[in-house]
Amino acid sequence: MMHWHTVTALASHLQAMGFETATALTCTTAFCLGICWIWLRQQFPENLKGLPLPPGPEPAFIVGNLKDLPTGGREWDGYAALARKFKSDVIYLRVLRTSILTINSFDAANELLNRRGAVWSDRPRLPMIKELMGWDWNLVLQSYNEGFFPHRRIVQQHFQPGVVAREYRPVMLSEVTVLLQNLLDAPQHFSDHLKRMAAAIIMMVTYGHRVVSDNDPFVQLAEEVRRHSEETPGAALVDTLPILKYLPSWIAPFKRTALFKRGLSDQMREAPFIAVKQQLASGKAVRSMVGSLLEDESRPTDGSDEELIKNCGGVVYSAGADTTATALTNFFLAMILYPDVQRRAHQELDTKIGRNRLPQFEDRNNLPYLGAILKETLRWKSVTPLGVPHCTTKADEYNGSFIPARTTVLANISAMLHEKEVYHDPDEFNPDRFLSQNPEPDPARTAFGFGRR
């Protein structure tokens, strides 16, 4: 704890700066009491039952587990290593007053995030991406009190399975055909072709915009956003120490970076939305989610819902293109590294489909090996290794441990999809794991996140 000679030393320093003795002593004492209060709240959070906190590294004075936070990329591997070290599927860390819980097994995630979703499905504050980068409009990141429910209602009604099958599958088939032709013409640019296809499907579905080349401005914008937004939400230091948000930008370069990214965020929402409005005005609009919402006769006549519509279009545009292109890139990597898998998939296509037509959605049930490849692609390299952070709405307990209210919760999806007790030889790409008499669990239960979101 803080010693009295430390208090007097700080008071003397303030006196030297021109403060009166009484004022200097009062300010210093208040500062020290504040530090002690933070320390006490760290040591004794609102734990009415007196339960221990979950396993985790011993926190240091004041800063807590700041030095224990995995940083520098592949943080999911760092959290998995902590889980092995402490032999626990949940790990608790604390930085100042920020509580962080990482979940590293499916069973724990299913219990806490699915079965107790009413308590475990909120979103934390996330100062970096929501406040500094301006992504507070994004449904995926919104807390319940930030407009989550009206945004979710709009997105859900336009992406029901029946709507997707009826209205969006023809778009997908058309763009896959373009992709195949592009791969034949310039296979060395396969990554660009995948990004173009993913963006083209999303742009047509969301805005009715047809992408005709890899240089399409909206494709380029989506790639620019992706390239500058690779950091996992909640991983920035300012998310753990929100007070850093108030530092001047000349000593906080992350604020200058965030300002640039905020500009990209604004462009991503504004540019395609304005294009749809112009097409509607000229009578040339193609049917799309945003167009349908703007033409809805039941919407407010004063246009007060335009921000809501713009946000919903932006979240589909930003989330869909990036995740789809990433998953397909992982598939290409697997086919290069495991040629026997590729050869067997070819044989199944030749046997079940033949060489005179392309596969259709209706053929899926007759292509079990290709279905297993899809599952293994989702498992082998997770598109969202740490998912999107959750937050507890109130205090809870798990396996005899106390979980404070407003704890930031990270679901380590990568670790769950590589549990050796669940998946045999998890680092290998092996579609057969889903085709045996005792198939291993479908990764879809994990890969797309947990809970009410």
Automatic annotation (TrEMBL):
**Keywords recorded for this protein, A-Z:** Heme, Iron, Metal-binding, Monooxygenase, Oxidoreductase
Pathway the protein takes part in: Secondary metabolite biosynthesis
InterPro entries listed in its UniProt record:
Cyt_P450 (IPR001128), Cyt_P450_E_grp-I (IPR002401), Cyt_P450_sf (IPR036396), Cytochrome_P450_fung (IPR050364)
What Pfam families has UniProt attached to this entry? Answer: p450
User: What Gene Ontology molecular function terms does this protein carry?
Assistant: heme binding; iron ion binding; monooxygenase activity; oxidoreductase activity, acting on paired donors, with incorporation or reduction of molecular oxygen
**Region span, Disordered:** 428-453
Cofactors required: heme
Instruction: State the superkingdom.
Output: Eukaryota
Query: What family is reported?
Result: Belongs to the cytochrome P450 family.
Kindly provide the name given to this protein in its UniProt entry: Cytochrome P450
